[in-house]
Amino acid sequence: MNTALTTYAATQGGLAQRLESARAGIERAGAAGGDVSPERASRARETAEEFESMLLEEMLGRVFESVGDTGFFGEAGPGAGMYRSMLVKEYAGMIAKSGGIGLADQVYSEILKLQEAA
User: Where's the Flagellar protein FlgJ N-terminal domain (predicted)?
Assistant: First the structure.
């Protein structure tokens, strides 16, 4: 199998696992009804930020894939694909931690609404 295809398949498997983890976090956060405790609000915030980071990672991964094998600075080599995926993950995490694109706030408010309605 093509190495790019293998890397892509591995990335998609990881994404599916992380999406399932985020979904489970949302369900755990919304399991109890009524008022939202500070602990549940904290878990809801973590879940929302993780979801935003995951989405940013996927988006940035597509951008980096479009650059090709040479990269932005002409780097290439046998470990470039692994390095690129780690770099994209770190970029996404840093963007999310510094305020992101505002998605985490929206997801967080929706989680809280679900918790209060349950």
Answer: 67-108
